[in-house]
Write a structure and sequence with these properties.
Length: about 110
């Protein structure tokens, strides 16, 4: 009887151990499957972010080029602005000379 009880208990324990191992394997497989799916999602997200980063880098480079061209243009505009200021200054001098000449003519007209 003791031996029968021992065999029964041993068989019961083996069955329970096999059931536990099967459940563990099933859970491990579920976790592995979920992990693989999550890794695939992360790879897709990483690819998307890499594409966005590449796009942003290209836009930044484009903006840098535009700024460089704009900077050159601004430098050119400064030269143009300085040239225009010189012309304005020359015209102001000419205007003052004309005003002085008109005053002289007005004075001369009063004399007569």
């Amino acid at each position: 009887m003791a031996y029968g009880g021992y065999e029964l208990a041993a068989n019961k324990m083996q069955a329970q151990q096999a059931e536990i191992e099967a459940k563990l394997l099933m859970h491990i497989e579920e976790i592995r499957s979920e992990s693989n799916a999550r890794i695939d999602d992360l790879h897709a997200e990483l690819d998307e972010l890499t594409a966005i980063m590449t796009d942003v880098s290209e836009k930044i480079e484009s903006i840098r080029e535009e700024l460089q061209m704009t900077s050159e243009s601004i430098t050119g505009n400064d030269d143009t602005r300085l040239a225009l200021q010189a012309q304005i200054h020359a015209l102001d001098k000419q205007l003052e000379e004309l005003r002085a000449a008109i005053r002289k003519l007005e004075d001369a007209a009063r004399v007569y």
